């Protein structure tokens, strides 16, 4: 579980630089990062909205358990 201080810092970073906030939470070569990067290039506000959504509501660990993990996933 993420501490509230860490979560608050990530949200502040996501407001200032949306792709960096998503990169800290999900990694730099993920789909979430590239979606946030494209949305930030197209418009700053959509990038912020998606970054906050990706930080607060998306949890990739729920989707990558032993039975539902994709073929290309390397543990």
From TrEMBL:
<feature type="transmembrane region" description="Helical">
    <location>
        <begin position="35"/>
        <end position="58"/>
    </location>
</feature>
<dbReference type="GO" id="GO:0016020">
    <property type="term" value="C:membrane"/>
</dbReference>
<keyword id="KW-0812">Transmembrane</keyword>
<protein>
    <submittedName>
        <fullName>Uncharacterized protein</fullName>
    </submittedName>
</protein>
<keyword id="KW-1133">Transmembrane helix</keyword>
<keyword id="KW-0472">Membrane</keyword>
<dbReference type="Pfam" id="PF01679">
    <property type="entry name" value="Pmp3"/>
</dbReference>
<comment type="similarity">
    <text>Belongs to the UPF0057 (PMP3) family.</text>
</comment>
<dbReference type="InterPro" id="IPR000612">
    <property type="entry name" value="PMP3"/>
</dbReference>
